[in-house]
Specification:
The protein is mainly α and 64 residues long. Helix content is 72%, strand content 0%. It has one domain. Helix 1 packs across helix 4. It starts with a helix and ends in a 6-residue tail after the last helix.
Length: 64
């Protein structure tokens, strides 16, 4: 599964979130990518990426 470039860039500047992301199971990483890619507007996508980083650091999963 390819990580979208904008999510990859956000993870690159947040080492804590990047480390937590790599610890997620494949299915949870896939759900984050799906959730972000479902956004139709660029603003929504950016908001989801920011929210995802915080959720990942807290150990939360999308829809959980």
């Amino acid at each position: 599964m390819a990580i979208p470039p904008d999510l990859q860039a956000a993870l690159a500047v947040d080492p804590e979130a990047a480390a937590a992301y790599t610890r997620l199971s494949y299915s949870h990483r896939r759900e984050y990518v799906r959730w972000i890619e479902e956004a139709k507007r660029a603003e929504t996508r950016a908001n989801r990426i920011a929210r995802a980083l915080e959720m990942i650091k807290r150990g939360e999963v999308v829809g959980g």
